[in-house]
Every structure is written in C-alpha cells, then in structure tokens.
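Chapter summary example.
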Amino acid sequence: MAQVAAFRRKSNLDKTFFSVSFLIPVVLVLCLALVYVRIKVETIKLGYDISASKKQEEEALKENLTLQAEFMELKSPTRIEYLARGLGFKFPTQEDVIYIKENTVVGERR
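The structure predicted for these 110 residues follows.
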C-alpha cells in the first residue's frame, strides 16, 4: 500500500507539473498573439488617419487654388475700372493733370 500511495503522489505531481509547464507557454503565446493583433490594429488605424489627412490636404489645396483664382479675378484691372466708373470715376483729362517742378518742395518758403 505504501507503494500505491507514493505512486499516487508522484502521479499527482506529474499532472500538476504537466499542466503548469503546458499552461505557461500557452499563456505566453496568447499574450504574444494579442500584442501582434494590437500592433496590426494600430497600423490599420494609422493608415486610415494618414489617408484622412491626405484627403484634407487635397481639399485645402483645391480651396487654395479656388481662392487664388477668385483673388486674381477680383483684382483684375478690367473689374476695377468697371467698379470705378460705376462710382463716378473717370480718366483724367489734360486739365486735370498738375505739373510740379522737380526741385520744388511743398511747403518751402522763398
């Protein structure tokens, strides 16, 4: 009977050792798998963020080009002349031009 009891104790130790020695690598592999999945998820998320940023950049560039075109249209001499004529401006005539001597300083006393 002593041999049977010793066998049972040894058998229980082997089962416990087997389950612990088997459980540690399984847990380690699961942890590594979770870390790998997390890295992949972050990579995909960053890819989407980069894609969204590029789309925003393209939209900003298109808006910039539109605004530049609008600016060039608004400052065109033809448009400015049209607006000036609408406000009552006219081209100067010969009588409207005042000639000033080159050496004359305004406000100078003689």
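To summarize the output: The chain has a mean pLDDT of 86.
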